[in-house]
Amino acid sequence: MRRRPYRNGERPLDQRERRRAFAAAVRTRPPLRPTADREFGRALARLDELVEKVLLSGDHDRLLDETRVSTWPRELDAVVAVVVDRLDPPPSVDRAAVSAAVADNLEARFGLRAGASPTERSVVLWQSVAGADSRLAENGWERDVLSDDREALAEFFASDGDPVRARLTRSSGRLHLELRGTNAPVGDRSSSYAVLSRSSALVLVDDPRGLVSVLDESTAGALRDVVVAWGELADHLDERRAETGAR
């Protein structure tokens, strides 16, 4: 099963791969918000189900392609339109409110607002992440798009065969990178650790087995860039979720 990001028009080979890829791409699974308006609530009853059906139709695989981040807001706009049509709210329900609810649902999943401007901060940060992922790939490392570690911001693996993985987490406002053997558990005694300093340098904290020796200067720099990009995106998504929740 493919584990690296889709790029340059690549698409899932079959429905099973598409289902796993979209499940992994979703950052959160938003609950349906309670509403005092029963009719409006009934209009949204199948929201999650229909969003997932539309995403798995194969018509919106561009949302998986990291080289097409600039098109994601337009693609999400198209998903909103299809989902609203399938929800088919009655005339007594404000269609614009239904569209906004669908857009909220998708933003919670993907971290981007449908129809967002190419200069909107979320789009710019996703482009930074995609660029950092691509530079890391040039150095023989890939982001694991099928990682099921929900406590990690991202996981990476050495695609050239080195049996090493990197796990990026955030704790107490700091970004932490753990390097461990491919078959070693998270937090293994042999793991190496680095933190991102306030000056955005990747600082080695512990390296008991010399795992860092597998990284040349270029790879270490690419890992540092990917840590910075994912950290900035994670901070922004937290801010956006707080704003959406307040609305």
How is this structure best described in words?
The chain is an alpha+beta fold. It contains 7 helices and 6 strands, in the order ααααααββββββα. A 6-stranded antiparallel sheet has the order 1-2-3-4-5-6. The longest helix is centred in the C-terminal third of the chain and has 30 residues.
Secondary structure topology:
Elements: H1 15-25, H2 38-43, H3 47-55, H4 72-87, H5 95-110, H6 121-138, E1 141-143, E2 154-158, E3 164-171, E4 174-181, E5 192-196, E6 202-206, H7 217-246
Antiparallel strand pairs: 1-2, 2-3, 3-4, 4-5, 5-6
Helix pairs in contact: 3-4, 4-5, 6-7
Provide the β-strand percentage band.
5-15%
Tell me, briefly, the overall form: elongated
Strand order of the largest sheet: 1-2-3-4-5-6
Name the average pLDDT. Answer: 88
Query: Helix and strand string, N-terminal first?
Result: HHHHHHEEEEEEH
What would the keywords be for this entry?
single chain; 247 residues; 43% helix; 14% strand
Concise overview:
With 247 residues, the chain is α+β, with helices and mostly antiparallel strands. It contains 7 helices and 6 strands. 30% of the residues are buried.
